[in-house]
């Protein structure tokens, strides 16, 4: 039985989330005005458009590349650093539909590669070196991929909610997403 604590990672269950992320993002973002797509939670935070660009960059250069790195090099070489904002400049010039299409294609390709690897329980315990965290297990990398998607979906929802943080008036006390934005009730 899955738990909310402990080692619950299961590759087929994880894939249930990873395969849905592109459709969830499309439902959330396609056709929205720049007022929604370019909103942020404040200085130094990311807009939904930037989150999507970040997810494209991660799909292109981090997840599958790092899976292969673990299997090919183990701890003999650290992962290449990931440029978290590398796609931001090009995102400003692209439509959300174009970005969503690319993300969907990249994710589909990533999941096909992951399925073709037919990872064994032993392989999930193999380790490599992260440039900041040190030794990491393949299982941890794959679980992070899922949590990363979910974290950014929550981030987009927080950005959307914050646009109306003042407008909701007294109902703010009942809206946890607004309390989560700044820690207040």
Describe the structure.
The chain is mainly alpha-helical. It has a single domain (11-182), classed as dinb family like domain (Four Helix Bundle (Hemerythrin (Met), subunit A), Up-down Bundle), CATH 1.20.120. It is 58% helix and 4% strand. It has helices at 11-18, 21-29, 34-37, 48-61, 63-73, 88-91, 96-117, 121-124, 138-162, 176-182; strands at 127-130, 134-137. It has a two-stranded antiparallel ribbon with strand order 1-2. Strand 1 and strand 2 form a beta hairpin. Helix 1 (11-18) packs parallel to helix 9 (138-162), helix 5 runs antiparallel to helix 9 (138-162) and helix 9 (138-162) crosses helix 10 (176-182). The protein is globular. The two termini are 35 Å apart. The relative contact order is 0.16.
Largest sheet: spatial strand order: 1-2
Q: Strand count, sense and closure of the main sheet? A: 2 strands, antiparallel
Low-confidence runs of at least 5 consecutive residues: none
- What's the number of structural domains? 1
- Share of helical residues: 55-70%
- Given the structure, what is the number of helices? 10
CATH fourth-tier homologous superfamily: dinb family like domain
Provide mean pLDDT, rounded: 91
Distance between the termini: 35 Å
């Amino acid at each position: 039985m899955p738990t909310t604590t402990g080692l619950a990672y299961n590759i087929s269950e994880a894939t249930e989330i990873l395969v849905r992320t592109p459709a969830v993002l499309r439902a959330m973002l396609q056709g929205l005005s720049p007022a929604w797509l370019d909103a942020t939670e404040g200085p130094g935070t990311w807009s939904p458009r930037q989150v999507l660009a970040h997810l494209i960059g991660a799909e292109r250069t981090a997840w599958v590349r790092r899976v292969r790195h673990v299997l090919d090099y183990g701890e003999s070489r650290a992962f290449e650093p990931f440029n978290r904002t590398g796609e931001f400049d090009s995102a400003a010039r692209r439509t959300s539909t174009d970005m969503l299409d690319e993300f969907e294609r990249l994710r589909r390709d990533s999941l096909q590669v992951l399925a073709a690897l037919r990872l064994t329980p032993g392989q999930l315990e193999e380790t490599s070196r992260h440039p900041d965290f040190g030794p990491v297990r393949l299982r941890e990398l794959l679980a992070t991929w899922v949590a990363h998607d979910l974290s950014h979906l929550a981030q987009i929802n927080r950005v959307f909610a914050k646009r109306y943080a003042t407008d909701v008036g007294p109902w703010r006390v009942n809206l946890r997403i607004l309390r989560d934005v700044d820690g207040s009730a």
